[in-house]
Amino acid sequence: MAKATAGPEIERLIQLLARLPGLGPRSARRAALHLIKKRDQLMTPLAGALQIATEKVVVCRNCGNIDTMNPCAVCSDPKRDPSVIVVVGDVADLWALERASVLNARYHVLGGTLSPLDGVGPQDLAIDTLVARAQEPEVKEIVLALNATVDGQTTAHYITDLLHDANVSVTRLAHGVPVGGELDYLDEGTLSQALRSRTPM
Amino acid sequence: MAKATAGPEIERLIQLLARLPGLGPRSARRAALHLIKKRDQLMTPLAGALQIATEKVVVCRNCGNIDTMNPCAVCSDPKRDPSVIVVVGDVADLWALERASVLNARYHVLGGTLSPLDGVGPQDLAIDTLVARAQEPEVKEIVLALNATVDGQTTAHYITDLLHDANVSVTRLAHGVPVGGELDYLDEGTLSQALRSRTPM
Q1: What is the average per-residue pLDDT within B140-167?
Q2: How far apart are CA B2 and CA A117, in angstroms?
Q3: Which residues of A touch B2 (CB under 8 A)?
Q4: At what angle do helices B8-17 and A44-56 cross, to 10 degrees?
Q5: Which among A28, B7, B119, B129 could disulfide-bond with A68, CB atoms 3.0 to 4.6 Å apart, if both were Cys?
Q6: Residue B113 — pLDDT band, cuts 50, 70, 90?
Q7: Which of B22, B51, B90 lies at the smallest CB-CB distance from A31?
Q8: Do A134 and A142 contact (CB within 8 A), yes or no?
Q9: Mean pLDDT across the stretch B34-57?
């Protein structure tokens, strides 16, 4: 900003808000104004929530999920099927799958995907701990729920190779037409996968 | 959300972030994860900045600007021209004009625009204090820098009528082609205003 129009405390707030994903400089200013206008309803509670999260949030030592307990609520849940581990790239993917709430399984968060171009190798991801968990006698299936991108699929193949000698079946998410998707807007890769994986009515 | 996937502290943080303008539920989750991952670089400083803003930010008793001093830095600045008052609807508009930094004037924030449909009348805006400021002997010009919307222009006409007997000239922002704008994408109203207000090369 060329000129400090508000006090340094407000400028600092705007700069920090602008570092959130989804907020640019302009929307960070709007957010700061909104916070200042809603001081009691929003700004004070948000300051408190951030302070509490700063103090309490930990990474689950078992699966890499983020929670305020360790092991996390998912790993500690006795109703979860211990025979299935769903492998995801990021905690956001874990949350997305939990919202779909299909599998009552546990998770393993890799912390990213292999990406030679970005210098992300196997040692940067939680792959060795996954291989260790796959050796546990109760584990029967590893579901690779990774992005359908080049990096995601590279990671899936790498893990499949590593788990070749482990006594588990390795599966991946189905490819196909998204629910509500229109064929006309889908790419050829998705359409050809959906055709090849066609199922009886 | 159908299912609490993270702890209640994280859910609360996500809910508060989702109330910021520009962030929906999905981007609030992304923002919360980003904050948790950048705990020391971002989450702790943001909690502190919000706390400081909660304590220090005040509304300027003179012009309605938001600052940590009262009167605000603009009103207290002895280098500002005291003969011109720029009337804006909101603090965000004041900041936008300060970034343009053309006029070295002082401001008056109305706190909105007249909107009969939304039940916003003159008593809801800082119009009486504007009329009082316009009577001050040093004030020569009132620039109405209001949105070029129906509500903004209604407000501009209402204020112009009120200031009819005050010894000030009342001006408004020019209409015309935005800098960098392509004619093909402009509405007829803007084009006709730009043609009528054409200036010599």
Answers
A1: 92
A2: 38
A3: 99, 101
A4: 140
A5: B7
A6: very high
A7: B22
A8: yes
A9: 94
pTM: 0.76
- Residues B100 and B89: their CA atoms lie apart, in Å, by 17
Residue of A nearest to B12 (CA): A49
**A92:B39 CB<8 A:** no
Q: How far is CA B59 from CA A30, A36, A159, B20, in A?
A: 16, 10, 58, 20
Whether the Cβ atoms of residue A36 and residue B64 lie closer than 8 Å to each other:
no
Contacts of A33 in chain B (CB under 8 A): 66, 90-92
Average pLDDT score over residue span A143-156 = 91
A108 shares contact with chain B (CB less than 8 Å): no
- For B184, which DSSP code? G
Alpha-carbon gap, residue A71 to A130, rounded angstroms: 15
Look at B7 and A57 and tell me if their CB atoms are within 8 Å. Answer: yes
Mean local confidence (pLDDT), B187-201: 81
The per-residue pLDDT for range A12-23, each reduced to its tens digit, is 999 999 999 989
Quote the distance between the C-alpha of residue B59 and its chain's center: 13
- How confident is residue A5, by pLDDT bands cut at 50, 70 and 90? low
- Band (pLDDT 50/70/90 cuts) for residue B5 is low
Phi, psi of B144 (to 5 degrees): -90, 100
Beta bridge partners of B88: B109
Query: How far apart are alpha carbons A175 and B144 in whole angstroms?
Result: 58
Residue of A nearest to B48 (CA): A47
C-alpha B147/C-alpha B92 separation (Å) is: 12
d(CA B116, CA B154): 10
Q: What domains can you pick out in chain B, each with its CATH number? A: 8-56 (1.10.8.420), 66-172 (3.40.1360.10)
DSSP letter string over A157-172?
HHHHHHGGGSSSEEEE
Return d(Cα A72, Cα A59) in angstroms, integer.
8
**Peptide bond connecting A116 to the previous residue in cis, omega within 30 degrees of 0:** no
State the residue for tokens 């990213």. Answer: A112
**A and B: number of Cβ contacts within 8 A:** 175
Question: Rg of the Cα trace of chain B?
Answer: 22
Complex ipTM value: 0.76
In this prediction, residue B67 carries a pLDDT of: 92
